[in-house]
Amino acid sequence: MTDQFSRSFRGTAHQMIIYSLLEKLKERKYIKQFNFYSKNIRIGYKKEQFYFPFSIEFFDGERWVIQSTTTFPRERMNGYQWNAYHFKKIDESYKKAFVIYPDAMGENDIKKCMNYNTDILLNEIYSSLDGVVSFADFYMMIEEKWLENESVQKRKALQGTAFEKWLIDILTHPTNLDIWNGKINMDLGFNFPFFKKILESFNIPLGQSISKINATDKIPLLTPRIEKSRGGKPKTDIVVHIYTDSLTPLEFTISSKRTSSGWVAINQYSAEVYIDVLKIDEPELKEALYELQEKGAPTQIPKYYQDIIINLLPKYHRALAEWAYAGIGGEGKGIQNAEYFTVYKNDKKELEIYRRDEYIDKILSEVQNGQLGSPFTFTYTGTRGTNIQLRGRVI
Predict the structure, then answer these.
(1) Does an H or E element contain 179, and which?
(2) CA–CA separation, 193 vs 200, rounded Å?
(3) Dihedral angle at the C-alpha atoms of 152, 154, 157, 162, nearest 10 degrees?
(4) Which of 68, 131, 255, 392 is the most exposed place for a label (fewest CB within 10 A)?
């Protein structure tokens, strides 16, 4: 295979990965529509002259154009700039233009692309391009655009659901399985570095043959307690089945999270349920928890009860964290309880994955500024005196 043919093949393959992403984004209504143009379809002032392979239209009428690349295209970048300038000048609905490169491209090329992107962001160069970004970063930019007019609360909820869908896309995309099985190059995958990190965390070595991967976010609701009209949402967000040479597929349960600077609700039950699940047997601690439920906040209960919780609850912190984050000890059974935690670091744009014990250790050792000597805060929702809502951090 000649270098020219190889570059052409990889370029076409990368475009097909972008195409498959845009199909998913259109299906989920992140974007209104998109177009993929052959090289003979161009725009111009009098004659057709300027070209981008992809255009995206959002529901507010804003459009973006996208150029794909599998290397740092230094000799072509001025051409992309020229095309971007004229696209925006000819049609003002084109607001942004990006060059997208694969997540697993060569390290040297990635560094050059990142440096060029930094020059754009810092206005070190005149640029009609709005960025030279990775496939994963491009997805996040689409998501940000989709959520730009939502409230903070709804935005966080939608981001959580979107993250689950994104992980399922990564785990089930056929190109990632082909790369894993050695059939195609690593830079032609659908967020392959994240795929690789997840499977290696499952102790599946690169090179072990995999025939199929199924992943779903359709998890049965918890069995309702007497006090509830229906079962709650389980702690597992995604169930993964991986088929190897074994007749029985390997099964993994994942809680998917994105880092948050604030406290988020992680559990909400009556004081009676907390006492039952944690198997609390100290009468004074039971009394203090009922008092916390009645008053609704740690600051509203007498110091006497605050001291009791500070002194006696720590022995239950691990069990409380395992229940609140992973479902252990509660109504959840089997696949409803999370064995792994995937956490997308919003600030670093990195995906981390932890086994349950590792993640609980991090929560107990790293979360600061909780209430009553714990890594949690306590409040209520609805009618005061009926429940204790536990809030925690995502780290």
Answers:
(1) helix 174-180
(2) 11
(3) -100
(4) 131
- Residue type for position 337: N
Rounded Cα–Cα distance for residues 74 and 72 (Å)? 6
How far apart CA 339 and CA 359 sit, in angstroms, is 10
Distances (CA, A) of 293 to 229, 274, 278, 281: 21, 11, 16, 18
Query: Using CB atoms within 10 A of its CB, is residue 372 exposed (0-12), middle (13-18) or buried (19+)?
Result: buried
SS3 336: helix
- Which residue is listed with tokens 């998501």? 143
Residues 6 or more apart in contact with residue 149 via CB below 8 angstroms: none
Instruction: Encode pLDDT of 131-190 as tens digits.
Output: 999 999 999 999 999 999 999 888 888 999 999 999 999 999 999 999 999 998 888 899
Domains and CATH numbers, the chain: 3-147 (3.40.91.80), 151-395 (3.40.1350.40)
DSSP codes of every residue in 193-255: HHHHHHHHHTT--TTS---EEEEE---PPPPPPTT-SS----S--EEEEEE-SSSSPEEEEEE
Q: Which amino acid is at 386?
A: T
- What does the pLDDT look like over 325-384, one tens digit per residue? 999 999 999 999 999 999 998 888 889 999 999 999 999 999 999 999 999 999 999 999
Provide Rg for the chain, Cα atoms.
25
DSSP state letter for 337: S
